[in-house]
Amino acid sequence: MGHINLPPPRRGPSRPWTLLDIAAFALFAGVLLFFLLVLTPLGDRFAAGSSPSRDTIISALDSTSAGGSGRVSVDACPIEDVDYMPCEDPKRSSHFSRTMNFYRERHCPVPGETETRLCLVPPPKGYRIPVPWPDSLHKIWHDNMPYGKIAERKGHQGWMKQEGSYFIFPGGGTMFPDGAQQYIAKLAQFIPIKSGLIRTALDMGCGVASFGGYMLKENIMTMSFAPRDSHKSQIQFALERGIPAFVAMLGTRRLPFSAHSFDLVHCSRCLIPFTSYNGTYLIEVNRLLRPGGYLVISGPPVKWAKQEKEWADLQKLAENLCYELITVDGNTAIWQKPQEPSCRQIGKYFCPATNYDDSSEAWYYKLKSCVTQGTLTVEISLNNLPKWPQRLSKPTTRIPLMQTGANVFEADTKRWVRRVAYYKNKLGIRLGTSHVRNVMDMNAFYGGFAAALINDPVWVMNVVPARKPLTLDVIYDRGLIGVYHDWCEAFSTYPRTYDLLHVSGINSLIQDSTSGNSRCHLVDVLVEMDRILRPEGTVIIRDSHDVISKITGIVHAIRWTTDLYENEPESNNVEKILVARKTFWKLH
């Protein structure tokens, strides 16, 4: 085929750019950059990258509190960080060992490992103030956590489904698709659920925590936990519903609870290999279960096809720990732990004297495959505790064995009754209303603050600082719930999960008990509090005048509004009370 010869194009001489051309190009580029920064995540990343570092923020805030002129504010995190959990970051965790699910446990960033930048976690697009309790048990706003994976995969089992702008929770689960209420009624045929004996429960691998939600109707407080896994946000859904829950994984370490804390331990298809690693996981359950308490395992391996050996091994190990098998009903097995380990075969599981430890030590504490011989096991057994609600106000045998132990307990209980009444009547705290459901006491001691709220429609996460006296066992003996934690690290929960945070003695949370030096900065604690607090949530801080003055500059830097109050007349005049509220801000 021949080629057509076209004449070359005619080009005139190039025209040099005029000042008007340059101005027009600059205007176009500026408009394009503006839309890129405002309408795309690039702007969020750019803003985050230009945020002042942690050291810069702390230096400016310290200067302000010392009378200097430093002014700084903590910027927002990028929009992709709306569910940021510093110690449960899947990208970071993926680099750790898979053995015993180590990679799914807590792994907090260490100093120098990542960029030391502080920022405020933003709410997702379309976020609304959560549906109030008790309606939240049955429905939540879809846009507050727009993740439909569970609804898609588990909707046929009654977990949850989407209807319009809501996620709806019918109350089902994998092993109880007809609803938690029917399942609980079935368990009540073998366990004294309605008698007042059972008050604290642990639900392992809880899904969206419908079991724990419906146990509340039986006056049973259930601590539900699950890891951050492929279901994305099961614990986030639970907390949005107003059900006690937190993120955890039974892997290589003890769970952060005191020994003999739970009257009932429940596993519904939790898929924990209880007999693996020389029975380590069932021995950890044994550490947590109160003498005389009940263990329920529903699902594999109980009479499960192709898991006959695992089922036989589980029965044998439970028998060796002196557990009595109450019933096997379909794929559900129920055992009762003895009041004291009196059977002969348990002897081979006792830890040797050279391996003795405090069985209530549980903060980053490695799991054991032997049973620590405890004390007072009979005195704290289920049948020897007062029934609920009498146990709330009775000092237990686990209060430090000193002459004044019971007196300190009683004085603490009365003190918090006075203080909570003052909060409600004089400070305008909306406790007792539908505005407050999920509450945390960050320095709980004996749980007096939570006990004073027992008639309000709230639940309280009692946090016992891991470096302070280990009083969490007293809290559980009272029929309350809580965990150990170190406030120089992030808490194991999603952002925006608590309506009210309370802390008495915030400065003590970061002080080294030996040297008196600070292990971290107050700004670290307050930015973490902001992460887990819901928009328009409330913070109550009690501390000395000097500490409150220092905190005031920090809370303004993280967009909180504040009111300062004197403490209640019956208390000394050393403390001040700061009431702060988180503003409802959005990125765009």
UniProtKB/TrEMBL annotation:
<keyword id="KW-0808">Transferase</keyword>
<dbReference type="GO" id="GO:0005802">
    <property type="term" value="C:trans-Golgi network"/>
</dbReference>
<protein>
    <recommendedName>
        <fullName>Methyltransferase</fullName>
        <ecNumber>2.1.1.-</ecNumber>
    </recommendedName>
</protein>
<keyword id="KW-0472">Membrane</keyword>
<keyword id="KW-0325">Glycoprotein</keyword>
<keyword id="KW-0489">Methyltransferase</keyword>
<comment type="similarity">
    <text>Belongs to the methyltransferase superfamily.</text>
</comment>
<dbReference type="InterPro" id="IPR029063">
    <property type="entry name" value="SAM-dependent_MTases_sf"/>
</dbReference>
<dbReference type="GO" id="GO:0005768">
    <property type="term" value="C:endosome"/>
</dbReference>
<dbReference type="GO" id="GO:0016020">
    <property type="term" value="C:membrane"/>
</dbReference>
<dbReference type="Pfam" id="PF03141">
    <property type="entry name" value="Methyltransf_29"/>
</dbReference>
<keyword id="KW-0812">Transmembrane</keyword>
<keyword id="KW-0735">Signal-anchor</keyword>
<dbReference type="InterPro" id="IPR004159">
    <property type="entry name" value="Put_SAM_MeTrfase"/>
</dbReference>
<dbReference type="GO" id="GO:0032259">
    <property type="term" value="P:methylation"/>
</dbReference>
<feature type="transmembrane region" description="Helical">
    <location>
        <begin position="20"/>
        <end position="42"/>
    </location>
</feature>
<dbReference type="GO" id="GO:0008757">
    <property type="term" value="F:S-adenosylmethionine-dependent methyltransferase activity"/>
</dbReference>
<keyword id="KW-1133">Transmembrane helix</keyword>
